[in-house]
Structure formats: structure tokens, C-alpha cells
Prior knowledge:
Largest sheet of chain A: 6 strands, mixed
Oligomer: homodimer
Structural class of chain A: alpha/beta
Order of helices and strands of chain A: HEHHHEHEHEHEHEHEEHHEHEHEHHH
Mean pLDDT of chain A: 94
Number of helices of chain A: 16
Shape of chain A: globular
Strand order of the largest sheet of chain A: 8-7-6-9-10-11
Amino acid sequence: MDLNRESLKLHLENRGKLAVSSKVAVRTKNDLSIVYTPGVAEVSKQIHSNPSDVYKYTMKSNSVAVVTDGSAVLGLGNIGAEASIPVMEGKCVLFKELANIDAFPICIKTQDDDAIISIVKNIEPVFGGINLEDIAAPRCFGIEEALLDIGIPVMHDDQHGTAIVVLAALLNASKVVKKNPEDLKIVINGAGAAGIAVSKLLMCIGVDKNICTPVKEIILCDSRGIIYDGRPDLNSFKKELVKCTNGQRKAGTLKDALEGADVFIGVSKANLLNSDDIKKMNRDAIVLAMANPIPEIMPDEALKFAAIVGTGRSDFPNQVNNSLGFPGVFRGALDANAMKINNEMKIAAAHALAGCVVPKKDKILPYTLDKNVVPAVSEAVKKAAVESGVVRKV
Amino acid sequence: MDLNRESLKLHLENRGKLAVSSKVAVRTKNDLSIVYTPGVAEVSKQIHSNPSDVYKYTMKSNSVAVVTDGSAVLGLGNIGAEASIPVMEGKCVLFKELANIDAFPICIKTQDDDAIISIVKNIEPVFGGINLEDIAAPRCFGIEEALLDIGIPVMHDDQHGTAIVVLAALLNASKVVKKNPEDLKIVINGAGAAGIAVSKLLMCIGVDKNICTPVKEIILCDSRGIIYDGRPDLNSFKKELVKCTNGQRKAGTLKDALEGADVFIGVSKANLLNSDDIKKMNRDAIVLAMANPIPEIMPDEALKFAAIVGTGRSDFPNQVNNSLGFPGVFRGALDANAMKINNEMKIAAAHALAGCVVPKKDKILPYTLDKNVVPAVSEAVKKAAVESGVVRKV
């Protein structure tokens, strides 16, 4: 049976994948009096008097909302809230299985930004964190921005989860090819949620994770080619980015950009490149072709000239997969009592993730279900949260 | 250790009571490909093409949101969303333990009615039902009204759950004292969420559950005494009710109302009555004094003159408790693919609940954790949903 049919069968037989369960028994009248009324009133009074006790006495300490409006689901596009549910349930399953976090899907019908922002702010009480998911660019930027200061960690995973895992992959790949990360000339294709977040985080690629070295050698491309300062059609997010990328104001196509580049990062479309394009890159090129399910260039084709190739797929070596990032990041943020997920935490996550393997050409990242990843990443994220001063006083 | 301390300890040790769990295993790469990408895309596409398949392939078929704004939590009043969480988690635990429903707390920060209505409408996709909880009267009426036609069952439990269980209690109590339910003279004290819903449902107390007999002999009282047509201070909900209650336009105090009454139903305040007040009632009086935790009159005091006494408490006979109602009602509504919970379903639930015991003076209702209740109630509710034509075509 193929994957699609297997997946349909699994969902049909289980009627979805997610359940809610009780951590406490209700077998006797006494149980009922403690779990529910009248005993529970005392717990509510306690929280009413000491609002921060909500973390001590409720599920908030371990719960994350996976919030989407269904506007950019996987590669399927704007399929809406209902059709997004299987994906969001899947994400919640991974939160649970990988990081023991109680995540619940909030699939929002409206695609009005202000309404989405208001809904998330208003349903926040029971959640300890918010994972924004599959919200289309550029709307995702404004929505996330508006939610960063609500007092609990908020992260749009398509942006920052991807960026963290890409940064980890590059740290290890550059070790394998013995290049200094700060000296890499990087081309990113795709200026949506992932591309823009990857660009921003890669500006902090410096080997010393405590010093953000602004890298001038990042060139971001969109469907119209290289993005440069002064290109007339840039939206505000791209305009902001050209201030610190493409310092030489190079113009041209993606293929022009690749000339002399050390790294290609694709978060765009299938089959954009061939081996001749990779040939134009520097020696020991690193190619992360993450378009899903079909990459920008297939690994065998890229490997004719590249030293290291990664994709988003599990059936090739070097799978660059978000599930290596978000579980540990949220676990660490929750454990630290962090009020947000800042750059320091993302960079720490990337370095910790990179540290989970002894990097080789065909193993720049750990296996997606590697049980060592979440403990390592969450520990690093927690430490970074404390050191960068974003933890709640308890 | 007393109940309060036991409850605090249980909540602290477990950090709340509710968890999210996965119904499927994720142990191998293949599992991951079926549960999440790429396989899950096929499931999303399926729902996108056939929207009603959301019930087949996702958790929606078995999930209920327990929605509150924290404005009327237990007897604690307007304690807000955060402090309401322990109560809502408790409700969700009961949903799970009693009816195997996956319920999740949505504790809303705003107390603006339109905002609450809009939030519930917008987060509806992942939920198969909405249990409104602990929203203050009279706001709860308008909020529920605005949500009745969103296509999934919506019920404000403080209103209708209470009404269902009270109706069941009265059906059985009137059997024990050998009075015809339609002939009962009923006094209800408390014209909030519960009192108004109880009044409305009791108009359908007729022994034949298929015929709603409007009962003229209900008198509703609030803190200012008997509510009658023309009393100058009535809100719109009370005004609507006087059209079909208190037909003789009796005025006066609660104590005046009790003269010659067969039934007292209290959903109000502690210690309002003494045995002299009960003495004024008809012989074989039925007293349901449900103020929590201290009833309007203590059972031993009431029993000096009443034949049957029930309270909201588990430490006296005849506990009149909502958890006898809502689990079976929602189970039946979900199983029936009902689009709403109508009067027919509520009345069927009450009759089925009453049928769970052979009624005696000290056992007019089953024990709250009686495992026979949910199957009986849900079956009756399902049947009523089908017969009254409110089920979704599948």
C-alpha cells in the first residue's frame, strides 16, 4: 500500500490522531470532590489571588496551541481551517511524542490578521506557548510580530523552526568541508516565511554563538531573481532584508547568484536547478534543496558537483526537517519559564542540534526521531533563555 | 487532610489534570510519513474536496470545547479566565471519564459578548461541539442564542444541564409522592442562568414526553421576590418568561409563593428558608435546594415537613448534579451527528436519566458516577435528534 492510502486508512480508523486524556482518576465520590467541585474552588481561589500560580496548578505549564488559518498548508496552499486539521493534529502528535508537550490544534476560520491576533490573545490563558503554523507570507510576519509580547513564547515554526534546523545543518556542513561559517557565500531561493527567517538567522552564523556576526554574503532570491536594494517591486519585509544582505547590490537571476557561492538554500519550488548550475558554485559546495516533496534539484544530480546535499525528504541522506527543532525549542522555553523565544534561544538551539552528531558528508543532522535531540536542544534553549533574561519570575 | 488541601495537592503534583495524547504510534520513519508529511497531505486534500469528511478523518467527531470567560465560576463569581482553568479542566476530565469525549478548555480573556461569539465561531473547525460554561447571566443567554446555528451542538451547561437533571429529579420525585407532574405547583428561586432554563424546560414536564404541556403553575422568584407580568424592574429574559409562568399574576415574597406549592427548586443562595416555610407547602412537598455548597435549607430541616429533599451535595441523598446530564447529552449529540441540541433532546435526556433508577424517597436520581447513565442518556438523545430532524447528512 502506498503512503497516501496508508495515511488515509490510519486517519479513518482512528478518526484523527489526537485525544485528550485525564492525568487523574475519577472513580469515587471523593475523587470527584477533589478533581471537580467543591474542592476545585480552592484551586481557582488560589490562582485568583496569585495569578502566576496558574503555572503551578494547571495544564498551562505544559500546553502549546498549534494555531493556523489554513492559508499555506504544506505545499497545498490555502486549503482552509478544516482541511488543515490533519496536519495540525500531526504536529501536536510530534509535540507529544518527541517533547511530551500537550499541544492542541486551533484552526481558525477567518484569515483576517487582526481577528487572528485577537483570537490568539484571548484564548492564551490555558496555553503556555503558541506555535503558529502554515500561515501564508507575508501575513505571517505581521501576525507573529503582534503576538511577540503577550507574555508566553510565540513562534511561527515555518519561519524559525526551519531557520534553526538550516543553521544547524550549515554549521555541521561547513565543518565537514572545512570552511569558516562566517566566510560562506550563501544564496537563498524563496523569499517567503522560511526564506526570510533563514536569512535573518544566518546573519548570526558566526562560529562563536555568543557573537552575532553580520554576514554580508547572503543573497536572497525570489521568483523574479536576486533581491537587491532599489529593486522596484519589494514588499516591506524584503526591503528590510536588503539593508543587510546582498551588500554588493548584485542583480540578475538565481543562476547568476549561484556563481561563486558556497551554499545554496532552497525553500522554493521543484526542479529549478540542474548540475550545471551547481558547477558554477565554489568547490565543496553545500546544497540544501528543501522544496517538498520534490526538491529544487535531486541529490544525485547535485552531487555531481556539490560536496554535501540535504533535502526535506526522509528517503535521502541529510533530511533537513523542522521536527528536529520545534519540540526542543518549546520544551526548553516552557522549562525555562520563558516569556518569549528570542534570537539567542534560536541560535543556541541550532548549535545544540548541530552538536548531536559527529558530522559527515551524509550525516550533517541527526535522524528525525533521535531521542537525544530534544534533551540537548531544550537544555541549550533553557540556558539561553535564562542568560538572555527573558524568563518569568516564579 | 480536608478536601481543599487535597485538591490543591492533587493539582500541584500533576500540574493540572488534563493532557493531550496521541492515538497513533510514531516510532519509525514510516510512521512519521503516515502521521505527518508527506502522507498527511492526502488526508488534507480529501477534506478539502469533501468538507464533511472532516468528521471521518479528524478528531472533530469526538471533540468538545469547554468555553468560558470566567465571569461566573462556581460560586466564586467573576474570577477571570486564568482562575477558571482548574474548573474547566475538571469538566474536561468528566467529559473524558464519563463519556469518552475529548474535551479541551477554551478560557477566554475578554468578556465582550461579540468578541466571545466571534472567537467561538472562528475556532469551531476542530470541535464537534461547544459546551458553554460559567458565563454570567444574562450575558450567557445572548451568547448561546448567537451560537445555536453554527452547525455543531452548542449548549450552555449551567442552563440546560441543570434543567435536564432537575426535570429528571422531578419526574421521579412526583412518581414517589404519586402526584401528576402536570399538576405540580412549582416555585423556582433564582432567575439567573439555571433558574430561567429550568423554568423553560419544566414547561415541558408533561408525563408524555412527546407532548409539551405548558404548565401555568410555575412561579419564578428572584432576589426581589415573585416575578409577575408588569413588575417594573424585569430584564428582557424575565419579561419573556412571565408570559408563560405565574398566570395568576401573584405578587409577594418567595415565602408567599411557597404557600400551597408542591415543589421548591432553589438555584440561589444559602440559608434562605426554614422548616416553617416548608410547612406552608402542600403535603408531600418536594424540595430541591441546590445552592452550593450550602443549600437554601438543610435537608434535616426541610424533611420535617417535606417528603423528598435533594441538594447539590454529594454528602446527602438525592444529589442533583450536572454531571448526570452533560456527558450523555453531548455523547448522544456527537453520535447522532446532530447539528444542535434542541428541546426534544433535552427532554429525552431527562426521561432517560429518570429511567436509570427505581425511584425512592432517598434515591430519585442515580449516583453521579453510575456507569449506566451515559449509555442510557446518550441513546435517548441520539434517538430524539434523529426523530426531530437535526442530524447532519453523512
